[in-house]
Amino acid sequence: MSLRKRLMLRFALVLFLLMGAFSALFYTLSKQNLRHKVLAELREAALETEGHLLGNEKVVRHGTILLHLPPHTEAALIRNGRIAARTPGYRPEICRPLEGSGEEFLLQGGERLDACYWERFERPFRGAVVLQKRKIPNETLEMMEIFAAVLIPLTLILLAMAWRLIGRILEPIHLLTDSIRQVRVDNFSRTIPAPDRDDEIQALTDAYNAMILRLREGVETLERFNSDLAHELRTPLTVMKGEIELARRKERTPEEYRKTLERLAREAEGMERLTEGLLLLSRYTLQNVEQSFEPCRLDRLLAEVISQLEPAARQRGIRFLQRIGTSKEFRGNPVLLRALFANVIENAVKYSHDGSEVGIRLEETPEGISFTVEDRGIGIEPEKLRRITERFYRADSARSRQIEGFGLGMALVERAVELHGGTLQIDSRPGEGTRVRVLL
Q1: What structural domains does the chain harbor?
Q2: Exposed, middle or buried: residue 51 (CB in 10 Å: 0-12, 13-18, 19+)?
Q3: How many angstroms separate the CA atoms of 281 and 67, rounded?
Q4: What's the start-to-end Cα distance of the chain, in Å?
Q5: 146-160, 235-249, 260-274, 395-409, range with the lowest pLDDT
Q6: pLDDT, mean over the chain
């Protein structure tokens, strides 16, 4: 059964329960109102009849009460438990249920009601005046008939309106269903316009659109990763294939084979570093990165990175001037943070002059935690500085052949900063050096 039909059945059930409860309440109130109305009329007539019967003996002749009573009203005078006088139309069986009870009023019947009221007294003798009214129109049934005549069409109208309203409410869900049916790996372009009203349907639409955007970002990331990987692996694979072909053409000395294997090992290591960098760039998104966050000691992470890079820097006579002034815990991804520190410092070492210095600072500021690396190296030209965070971009093309790397370092740094909600600032002057500042 469709959702629309299930909602309609539930609405109809609730509507019928409410209508039934309202009808029962209306019937009870109408019945009480009629009872009070008849009781008031009979009580007033009984008191008046009592005054006539006890104050004027001429109104009774041969056991018959001679009084002008309201239409369809009969009376009886009870003395010592017996009927002493009555009107000709009085019917004792109607009022008999009240003879031995303490109740004063009885109303019974169907479309026409019979009512009986006892007005008891102790003087001049112990007795009662009984007033009996017959053929009373049952206004409660009449009101219920009118109520039913109005209620049934009203219920049908409400059900019809509910059917249309449920259809309009479910319309965005139908659009959502159609959009989901059209989703394919090569088609994440269709989103649903959010409705104007702020309700659960809008929340569902927003969630669907956000999911489509995440899927689109994931597919684009995967496609970009595949494209980048295929592009960058082509060169080392070609080199490796050439080295192998040269080694196979003729017999070589063990030393030549060793050199060939070393070249192949270097290319394989480069391919490994390239793959790891691309995987790190593709693994995390703004939607899933927070799940990997944990408390990190940035000073310890930075110290580990520095200890790993110091031997290579020392070989070129490059000194690290460190100033690590914070031990505050920071909630983040330790893998990304370590890669951030390593790539910034490694770039500073790569493009610094031999025997120079690289300044490294980690400190708390009013804006957050600041990480700064400053070198006195070759610097970057302004027009190239704007592209420094692009993947596979090498600012110094002339030196790219001598300096190891694939142009992924600053792209990874920018991505890591973005995923942690920080800011990246790069200042550089050709021939004077570069300053990179990350604010977390």
Answers
A1: 34-144 (3.30.450), 200-283 (1.10.287), 290-439 (3.30.565.10)
A2: exposed
A3: 109
A4: 54
A5: 395-409
A6: 83
